[in-house]
Amino acid sequence: MTTPVISGFHPDPSICRVDDTYYLVNSSFEYAPGVPIHRSTDLLTWTLIGNILSRPGQLPPQAGTASSGLYAPTLRHHDGRFWMVTTNVSEMRRGHLIVSAEKPEGPWTDPVHVAGTLGIDPDLAWDEAGVCHLTWASFQPGLRGIACVPIDPVTGAMLAEPRLLWNGTGLAAPEGPHLYRREGWWYLLLAEGGTERGHTVTVARARSLDGPFEAAPHNPVLTHRSTDHPVQNTGHADLVELADGSWAMVYLGVRPRGRTPKFHVNGRETFLAGVDWVDGWPVVDEQRFPVPGRDHSFTDRFTRPGLDPRWVAPGTFPTAFTRWEGPGRLVLGRSPQTPQTPALLLTRARDTEWTAQARLDTSSGTGRFLLRIDSAHWYGLTADADGVEATVAIGPAVSRVARVPRPAGRTVTLRITVHDAERTGGHGEPDAPDLVELAVVDDDGTCEVLGTFDGRYLSTEVAGGFTGRMLGVEPVDGEVTLEEVSYTTRGGRDTPN
């Protein structure tokens, strides 16, 4: 499998099925609204239907620190309700948070917290008696490892003392647990080896949650470590039973490119595989589902109040710094209530090659169109009353590389294009994973390129953390009005590497 089913910064997938429809959630880290939820009827084509944590009462504003916020949600459907559990690491000592809803689109309840569950990556599973069990990677002193406790998911109250289950095969960072009840066994699926190149999926089983858990003889059941497969870092999986009784697995992976150590730029993405049960153990078939390339192109003209769920912001909700003044008039300005929080209206970059444009009215301020990993790693075009400037920020090195007079008129159109790097030398791989071009577009469509830059510096291998590239607009000074944003998958379709 080389093509993700949900591409571009959609890590830690968790899936459930209701009748013939599948629902999937992902981590969102520092971005609000949080926990995107997708829907599918074929496991291959997914539609974003919203974000589960969609209001400040569910997700309090934070500083927007890179790779903070919401880690590794689990989505389940039980007794007529959807349940989602996750960890807000910015408030980790409150315990894991649980919300529920009758419909996946919401409204979702305000969260309850399970006190005394310090750690990450929570999971919910119900036994035959209807008792809910919370499982997580515990950081609690005296309870370090994969812990489990029965709870009341409505109140968050523990119903017994937590216990340890199984801490994996001995690889680093056992985490991402999911419990399943099947044919009289409890199966415990884990991520091990860390979420980088050593990432794996392992499994164990026991007749009861008292254990002992027995490891699968063929662990790890999925990994691409120490191979030349174009998809790496595979792990953090979740299983789902299909309507016909067969099984599938969703998991995260990355698509690194360029010379060693290779660089992945769009974050950890969601992939799909088939699963067979052989002698009571899951066996992964990565080739079962041929995934077609997808066209992620869109044009947003902000024709009505309310934003498409693709739009998010670090540390705060976009409603804190945007207001709609009519079709094609989305005004952005820093919030006086949270002046230290970045005012960045962003969406995920989904493809390996793409072009995006933003048309801005900067008559009342200065605006920036940028591509970023975090606040210290970004390339951008800044437009003021007189000109447009290209800036490259790589950690503490911030360089203003070019400035040109802006086209005449009230608005300015800024363009960012990402395309494959050319191969150099005889080693068969380009040095960079891709190239990022910054340009200004005149009214007649002619384009003035201010610079083309190595994409490796907007990669996770350089910036660190757990997210991916985000594309969007920032009001640098005063207010700017966003009239239109377009994003075009180059060639009309994201294809395998």
Structure description:
- The chain is mostly beta strands and 497 residues long.
- It folds into two domains: 13-285, Glycosyl hydrolase domain, family 43 (Tachylectin-2, Chain A, 5 Propeller); 298-489, Jelly Rolls.
- Helix content is 1%, strand content 49%.
- It has one helix and 36 strands.
- The protein has one helix spanning 460-463; strands at residues 14-18, 21-25, 31-32, 34-40, 47-53, 70-78, 81-88, 96-101, 112-114, 119-126, 132-140, 143-151, 163-164, 175-182, 185-192, 200-206, 214-215, 222-223, 232-241, 247-254, 269-278, 281-285, 298-300, 313-314, 322-324, 330-333, 345-348, 354-361, 365-374, 377-383, 387-394, 397-405, 411-419, 435-441, 447-454, 470-489.
- The strands form seven sheets. Strands 23, 25, 26, 27, 28, 29, 30, 31, 32, 33, 34, 35 and 36 form a 13-stranded antiparallel beta sheet that branches. Strands 14, 15, 16, 17 and 18 form a five-stranded antiparallel beta sheet that branches. Strands 1-2-4-5 form a four-stranded antiparallel beta sheet, with no helix packed on it.
- A hairpin with a 2-residue loop joins strand 11 and strand 12 (143-151).
- The longest helix is centred in the last third of the chain and has 4 residues, at 460-463.
- It is globular and about 75 Å long.
- The termini are close together.
- The mean pLDDT is 95.
Supply the CATH superfamily name of the largest domain. Glycosyl hydrolase domain, family 43
Instruction: Look at the structure and give the CATH class of the largest domain.
Output: Mainly Beta
Q: Which sheet architecture does the biggest sheet show?
A: 13 strands, antiparallel
Rg result:
23 Å
Number of helices: 1
Approximate shape? globular
Integer count of domains: 2
Looking at CATH, which topology of the largest domain would you report? Tachylectin-2, Chain A
Estimated share of beta-strand residues: over 45%
In round numbers, the mean pLDDT is: 95
What is the CA–CA distance across the termini? 11 Å
Name given to the CATH architecture of the largest domain: 5 Propeller
Low-confidence stretches: none
User: What level of helicity do the residues show?
Assistant: under 10%
Judged by helices, strands and strand pairing, the structural class is mainly beta
Number of strands: 36
The oligomerization state is single chain
GO molecular function, one term: hydrolase activity, hydrolyzing O-glycosyl compounds
InterPro entries: ConA-like_dom_sf, GH43_C2, Glyco_hydro_43, Glyco_hydro_beta-prop_sf, Glycosyl_Hydrlase_43
Pfam families: GH43_C2, Glyco_hydro_43
Keywords: Glycosidase, Hydrolase
